[in-house]
């Protein structure tokens, strides 16, 4: 189903365990759409089905050291942001809140959903730590995401790698500037 994306009415709320199946499906869809550009092989299938599980999302929704926010349009989940608190990153020593994931379903990219989720993530970080600083990793080839984070004030602070099977994928470490 395609929607007109002029200006959707986006609401953001904390996720609940009842959102777990929907979040797992959304995460798999977004991850495969972003990274399985040559198709899906066994390694990718196993990765997404073992990583983006309903049990994992139910756990993150209830975890005291995490914050999981969902974006809704017309009652449907269209994106989410997952924060991990007390997550030190040597390449961003001034903040210890990781934005582990910010996913937006493809039809809703460039519609403001990601900006709303990022703003809510920073607000949740501030409420928890007294500081809205975040760090994250993003695949260096995901130019759209890199540009989005730069537009919102995050800067590259270093490089790390995401390992999947025998392959290593370069990821930028990005962070909000120190206060």
Automatic annotation (TrEMBL):
Limits of the N-acetyltransferase domain: 10-179
Protein name (Swiss-Prot/TrEMBL): GNAT family N-acetyltransferase
GO molecular function annotation: acyltransferase activity, transferring groups other than amino-acyl groups
Entry keyword set: Acyltransferase, Transferase
Pfam families: Acetyltransf_1
Membrane spanning stretches: none
PANTHER family assigned to the protein according to its UniProt record, in alphabetical order: ACETYLTRANSFERASE, AMINOALKYLPHOSPHONATE N-ACETYLTRANSFERASE-RELATED-RELATED
